[in-house]
Every structure is written in C-alpha cells, then in structure tokens.
Amino acid sequence: MTQNRNTQTSFVNEEIDLAELFRVLQSKWKLILIALVLFSIGGYLISNLLPNQYATKTTILIEEDQQNDPLSKLQGIESIDLFGGLTSDFLQNEIEILKSRRIIGNVVDSLNLNVSYLNNDALVNTPIYSGDMPFTVKATQVRPLISGEVPTVNIQLNEDGTTFILKSDDGEKTYDLNTKIPLAFCNITVVPNYFYIENDAGESDNYEVTITDRESVIDHLLKNIRATIIENSSVITIAMESTSPKLSEDILNSMVVFYNKNAIKNKNAISLNTARFIEKRLKIISQELDSVETNKVDFKSVNKLTDITFQAEKFVENISETKKKELETLTKIELVKSIVQELQTNSNSLIPTNIGIENEDINLIINEYNTMVLEKERLLESSTEKNPVVVDLNAKINKIKFNIIESLKMYTSSLNILLQDVRAQESVLSNRVTEIPQQEKDYRFIERQQNIKEALYLYLLRKREEVSVVMSSQASMARTLDVAYTPTKPIFPNKILFTAGAGFVGMFLVFAYYFLLLFLKNKIETKEDLENIVGDIPILGELPNLKDADQKIIGNDDRSIMAEALRVVRSNLTFLYIKKENTKAATKILVTSSVKGEGKTLTAINLATILSNANKKTLLLGIDLRNPQVSNYLKGVEGVHLKHQGLVEYLKVNGEKDISKITAYKCKNDYLDIILSGQIPPNPAELLMDRAALNEFFSQVENEYDYIILDSAPLMLVADSLELSPHVDMTICMVRSNHTKIQDLKSVLNLCREGKIKNPTFLLNNVEMKYIKYGYEYTQPS
C-alpha cells in the first residue's frame, strides 16, 4: 500500500541553524581564544594610550533675595521682590543664565581658553592647561575661521629663557618673548612663566599651540557643561568633563564668580535708577530753592522788613496747625507731579518707591510695575524685543503704567480738594486778622515756598545716602557650597572595561564571521541543511563524495563506501513504499533533479544495480529524451551490451511493438535490464505526452520486474518529468552537496506543494565524509 505523504508542510526555514553555528564555533575554540587574548591585550594598551578624562563638579545654593535685600531694611524704601519664591522655573532660569553665552564668554576671556597646548615630545598628545606651561600665548584680533580650519603653530623656548622658536606655515623663526607677532590668522604674544622656567631650567619641549575663535570655544563649553537642580532644594550642581582637572575646576569656579557679578549688577538696577532720579530732582529743587531765597531777600530789602510783629506772631500761633496741613499737602502734590512727569517723559523706567505717597494701593501698583520692568531688562539680556514673552510683558507694563498715571491723577485731585479745604480755613482766619499788613502776608508766602523746597531738598539728600549704602552692600546671588572638585580616579578610560570590551569584540568578530558565512550560504551542504528546508518530506540518505572515477559505478558484491550508502537508500525505499496486496506490478521510481549536474543519472544506474544485487528484478529506463547520459556511463563497462534502439524508437512505432528490440542487459547480472532513451527526437515533449503509448509500454514491462528506475530530465529545465509523474509510484529528487542552490530546491518544493510530483523524496549526493554521521565498517579491502 502506498504511503501518501503530506506535501503541504511549510518547508521554508530561512533562520540560522543555531545548532550548526554552535558546532562550527565549538570547532574554532582555539581561534576564539586567540582573538580574546589578542584583543584584550590591544584594549589594555589602547586604554593606557588614551588621555584620561576626569569629572569635575561644584554645588551652589541660590539665595532667596527677599531675605537678604538691604533695600527692605531702609526706612521709606520697600524691598522689591524681583524673583518671587524659588520655584523650579526660577531655578531653571538661573541655570540658563549660568550657561548663557555672556557668562561662558567671560570665562573664556578670563582663562584665555581660545588657546590650547599639546606637547609634541610626549608619548601621548594630551592637552595641557596653560597653568602648567612654561609660557602662555595671548592671541588678539583672531579672524573668523573657515569651517574645518585649525590654525596651529609650534613653539619651543630656547635655553637663554628670553627667546623662542616659532614654526608656522611661513617657516621657522626666532623671536623675543613678550613681543607681538603678526600671523595670518591673528596676532600672538608669548608670555613666559618665570616660575616654571626657574624650576625647570634648560631647553623646553616642543609644543603645538592651537588658536580657536572665541565663539567655537563657547559652543564647546556649552555642550560639555551640565547643570542640574537637586530635588526639593535650591541647590544647583554644575559639572563638566575634561582631561585637565585644574582647567575644569577653574572654569566652574569662574562661572560662579561671573554669575554672582551679573546677579549683583541686576539687583543694583533699581538702586541705580533711584539714584539717577534723586540726583535729577536735587538739581531741580536746588535751583528752585535758590530762586525762592533770592525773592525773600529782595522782598525784605524793598519793604525794609527786619522782624515779625506781635500780631503776626499771634496769627502764626493760631493758624500753625492749618499751615502744617497745607505744607504737607503741597509737598505731596509736588511729589506726585514729579512722578507723573517722570512717567510721561521716560518710557518704561523704574519708579522710586515710598518717597511720600501715603496711598497703599498706589504703592502696591508701583512695586508691581518695577518688578515687571526689571524682569523685562533681565529677559532682554538673552533675547530681543520681538520675543513673545517680552512683547507680552511690554503690554502688561504699559497697562500698569496707565493705571499708575490715572491713580496718581485721582490722588492729586483728592490732595487738591484737601488743599482747598485747608486754604479755606486759612482764608477765614486771615479775614479775621485784616490788621496784618499786606507786606507781612507776602513775606509769609515767600517763606512758605522756601520751607517747602528746603524740606524736599533735605529729604532727597537723605535718600541719596541710603541708596548709596544699598549699592555698596549687595550680597551675592549664589553661595558656593562646594568649590569645584575633581576625584583622582578618571571616568575614562576604564581599563578593566576597555580590556574586557576589547576581548568581547574579538570574540564577537569571530562569531560574526562564521554567522555571516552561514547567513550568506546559498547552497545545500549537509543533511541538516536539507532537513531544515524540506521539513517532513523524507530524505532517503546521503551518498559520499568519491574522487576516484573507477568507483562511480558499483558492481556485484561491492563493499565500497558508495555501495554501503546505496544499501541504506534501498532499505529506506522498502520502508517508505509498500506494494499493494495481490499485485505483481513493478514499483516505478522516477529519479530527477532540479538542474543539470546533480548526479541523477549515475545514482539511477547505481540504485538499479543495488536493487538487482538483492535479487530484485530491475529495469533501468533512460527516459531523459533531451540529454541522454545512461549510455555514456555504461560504455566500456564489462558485461554490458547496449542496443542502438531505445524508448524513442518504441514510442514511434505504429502497430505492434517489441520490447526485446530495445532492451539491453548485463550478462553478469541476470536481475538487471536496461532500456536506453534512443535517438534524440525533435519532439520529446509530445512523445511523453502520449499517455496511451506510455501506458502500453509500462503494461508490457511492469509485471516482469520488481522495480523500474526512470532516469528523467531535470525539473527546472523542462516539463518532461512532470509529464511522467502520473505513471510512477514515487519520485527521488537528487540534491548535490555544495552544488544545489537553495532557491532551486525551493522551486522543486513548490512543485511538491502543488501536488505535481508524486510521493516526493530527496537524496543528498556528493557529501563530504566529515558531514556523514554514520560510517561503513564493511568495505572492500584494497
């Protein structure tokens, strides 16, 4: 009974066979060990040649301005809350100020960071900090550099300690120290480090000096410096990495210094504006006071007044309280007018606070206005007027400014009403003392004006001194908790990690090499390769690769390796295909391949021979009508008698056909007959499509034999083998090791999946002996 096999199995497996990869790597353990050792040594050497990188950091505490602002302690001037609470947004803003181009630019200028040094005589060219150099190069008028341009010069101090050798594109020249030298890209001055020279006498090493433009250095530092906020605190950590611990420490410490200077300058902004306002008002009041005093002198001189009469003293006593109120009111009106005038003439300037306005609401609006003006000035330090935040802030400032002016006008109106009331009371009293001469009245008016101007003048003088005290006592914005510190252990390179990583890379390269060999393999090599692709389609066995041509065709009682392999195939055939009960028809086996050159003809001959050696009546049928090869293999073989006629001549005969005329035979093997294909016909496909003729042929021979082996044409070249599929019981598809392409094999499998090949099996041919997992103990002795 025929065993029908499912050919719909998923046979495509393009994944790498990990077991095979492991087997290959296991055989290459010595190479892997060598790669591990060599790469580890290389990694260790490289880690010692690379310059060490160190991590430096400093921590600062941002002070809360409200608690330390001296303005808040001055009588008559309230503190202005510039920053509010220390929120995360505020601290983030301070980080941006710390890392602003202005602060970093100040650091670059102060430390001369646009000039870098390398020691050409050292084993490893590690950058050197200027503080460790025997000289310092000052570069001025550095022109903008073209992208990729790195201007360098070589400098070496002479033994005399007063001259040096300069090597540049213009050649080698000797110059005196502290001399300005014009170069193509800048002017340089070489300044000696006398302390270094005195402690290291003799000719110095040869140093390579690189001049970089200021903006490029700033960009580099901005990328390297990191600032982070410690959670739930007002502490900021600033860190950077460098090959020179001293350089990175100086950079971070300088950043904090310049940040504090910038903060103090910003905090002095209100004080400076207040001082300017006071100075301006003092100048005006001084002129007005001089004018009033001059009028007083003139009035006394013209009217010959020397003393106040008794009546006038009595009047002053009665109306002193009224005069006091009038004086206070006039002073307030004058102050309000000056502030309104200042607001109308100076756009967005700061307003002095608490200089006599007794209205809490107006003072609160003025404080809010000053805070917004200061915030705008801080934003403009790192942005422009077109910044959306600045535009929005301008709108708010103008709105508040309008509200202040309107409030001051309303306040002035209330003061005027109050003044009218006071003067009304004064008028009543004056009417009651009509006996006082007109001159005395005029004199009092002049004196009153003098008192107003004098009181205002003295008040402004006192405030000017207070502002000066504030400006000289401003505290730093940031308090340093830890000065810049660099641990002695470098963060890079990690010698252990470098050594282990290099060893891993060495092993990985070996793994990758053999992985790619397997991944890029496009031909079947071993039985495992074939099994991974064909899935559950049976594989009959493996035929070894024999280099001796004489051993290709086996003989009777053959004990060669090939014969033993074919006996395994014969056993597997018997297991895979069982004849139907009560039938004497021969088992017809079609031997084919995907393309030419896979050994199907030789295998068909040897398979027929090994079956006949088991006393199985076997017919070898050469049915490759386009490229017949059976006769070529059998020519000259002892005991083989071939006939010129073959299957083609049989199929062409119209009428009664005689099998005996086309059958060849081996005289030494009574169980094997051979029928060749005959002459190559012009229409082989049409002959094979004649099923009636083929059926007649097989009906004449199938009861005479146990097996009929058909040597057919390759599947991928012509359709002849597919035409024969209905006439056979099973098909052997030959696969040649290191010859059959995986893509060709997949094409054959597609035919199997489509049911065009009947009961397919595979046989691997030409396998290297090292890949065959079983041996042959019973071989013919030589």
Automatic annotation (TrEMBL):
<dbReference type="GO" id="GO:0004713">
    <property type="term" value="F:protein tyrosine kinase activity"/>
</dbReference>
<dbReference type="Pfam" id="PF13614">
    <property type="entry name" value="AAA_31"/>
</dbReference>
<dbReference type="InterPro" id="IPR025669">
    <property type="entry name" value="AAA_dom"/>
</dbReference>
<dbReference type="InterPro" id="IPR032807">
    <property type="entry name" value="GNVR"/>
</dbReference>
<dbReference type="Pfam" id="PF02706">
    <property type="entry name" value="Wzz"/>
</dbReference>
<dbReference type="Pfam" id="PF13807">
    <property type="entry name" value="GNVR"/>
</dbReference>
<dbReference type="InterPro" id="IPR050445">
    <property type="entry name" value="Bact_polysacc_biosynth/exp"/>
</dbReference>
<keyword id="KW-0997">Cell inner membrane</keyword>
<keyword id="KW-0829">Tyrosine-protein kinase</keyword>
<comment type="similarity">
    <text>Belongs to the CpsD/CapB family.</text>
</comment>
<dbReference type="InterPro" id="IPR027417">
    <property type="entry name" value="P-loop_NTPase"/>
</dbReference>
<dbReference type="InterPro" id="IPR003856">
    <property type="entry name" value="LPS_length_determ_N"/>
</dbReference>
<protein>
    <recommendedName>
        <fullName>non-specific protein-tyrosine kinase</fullName>
        <ecNumber>2.7.10.2</ecNumber>
    </recommendedName>
</protein>
<keyword id="KW-0808">Transferase</keyword>
<keyword id="KW-0547">Nucleotide-binding</keyword>
<keyword id="KW-0067">ATP-binding</keyword>
<keyword id="KW-0418">Kinase</keyword>
<dbReference type="GO" id="GO:0005886">
    <property type="term" value="C:plasma membrane"/>
</dbReference>
<keyword id="KW-0472">Membrane</keyword>
<keyword id="KW-1133">Transmembrane helix</keyword>
<dbReference type="InterPro" id="IPR005702">
    <property type="entry name" value="Wzc-like_C"/>
</dbReference>
<feature type="domain" description="Polysaccharide chain length determinant N-terminal">
    <location>
        <begin position="14"/>
        <end position="111"/>
    </location>
</feature>
<keyword id="KW-0812">Transmembrane</keyword>
<keyword id="KW-1003">Cell membrane</keyword>
<feature type="transmembrane region" description="Helical">
    <location>
        <begin position="496"/>
        <end position="520"/>
    </location>
</feature>
<feature type="domain" description="Tyrosine-protein kinase G-rich">
    <location>
        <begin position="447"/>
        <end position="516"/>
    </location>
</feature>
<feature type="transmembrane region" description="Helical">
    <location>
        <begin position="31"/>
        <end position="50"/>
    </location>
</feature>
<feature type="domain" description="AAA">
    <location>
        <begin position="590"/>
        <end position="724"/>
    </location>
</feature>
<comment type="similarity">
    <text>Belongs to the etk/wzc family.</text>
</comment>
